[in-house]
């Protein structure tokens, strides 16, 4: 009897444990099953929507056209800039640089702002080089170029701008503006190819530079990222390289649209450079984000923040080869509610209010940069700047990843989006079931323990 009584609790406990294990595996199975159903139900409608959207795009031409009330044509914009320069010969000059090969020709207008042109020793001044319109479909960027030049000429003014103090800074600066780097690509967009970002013969001018040139990621799409036949195969890139090397700027800014971001090197690595220059760049971007972007802008290395690497970009070349101490890529606008083929809407504001807001905000951001940029260089005490790396929640990280992918390339994003949603769902389910299992496990142990104790005195 006693043996039985002693054996009984042991058997009882073993049964309890096996019941518990059974529950545990059932839970695991249930979790996997649930996850599967969730992923299927999550992916099905989105895929369906994506297919439906693609079909809708093909069947009905409901794509947003270029808003001619807001946007200049490329010819008109260049003309406006030329007459602006003509009205302000004391401050502005313009030159047109031409190049070509294999029957393909390109030309780039470069406007130089120099406060007092008589004292034209560029090398003794603070030098800033800015390029707009490197991608054909990003029309808003060239409009921003015109706005910035109009403010520099003092024909237009920024609200809340202290012109006297700004002039103090600008006196010691030379600013070269390339309003439309990719004129041939832009012409294609104006001819109706609204999604074209490459140049007039299908090469992405932001993949044609020599740093890490030609490397292709798994999702490489030649329609978007064709790097050309060799580094600097394209006349546009040759002109820009020559300009950058001869001007030797302190600051380089490559202005794009498709999202809101302030990027620093690297694009081809998943990290920012080490040391003081990197800290300077990050501090400056933090400031611009706080003051002009209402902290909405993504900040960091292009490669690390967007979630994929880009090879052969202008900004990496400027930083690594031309040794421009502050090399940036600004992304000034993106509409992630636009369908993937509605490129004009995805990359450019389509209504007057947003158009004006984007130009006002970003013109102000550039003038803050003109003011703060030089001060970063004469204040050597910034050697000990604090690290500004921040912890980012998984949701923020994933959101950033998604937004970047969608906006920069505009295509095949639904699939990725579903993938990330699944990961997020799995992650949450995993956490929830872990907590539940832990809870069950603890309560089992305490119950089993009580029975063993109560069985002993008998
Ligand atoms: Zn772009």
Automatic annotation (TrEMBL):
The active site is at 331 (proton donor/acceptor). Its cofactor is Zn(2+). One of its GO terms (cellular component) is extracellular space. Keywords: Membrane, Transmembrane, Transmembrane helix. CDD domains: M14-CPA-like. One of its GO terms (biological process) is proteolysis. It comes from the Eukaryota. The chain crosses the membrane at residues 20-38, 425-442. GO terms for molecular function: metallocarboxypeptidase activity; zinc ion binding. Residues 70-372 form the Peptidase M14 domain. InterPro entries: At5g42320_M14_CPD (IPR034269), Peptidase_M14 (IPR000834). Belongs to the peptidase M14 family. This is Peptidase M14 domain-containing protein. It comes from Hibiscus trionum (Flower of an hour).
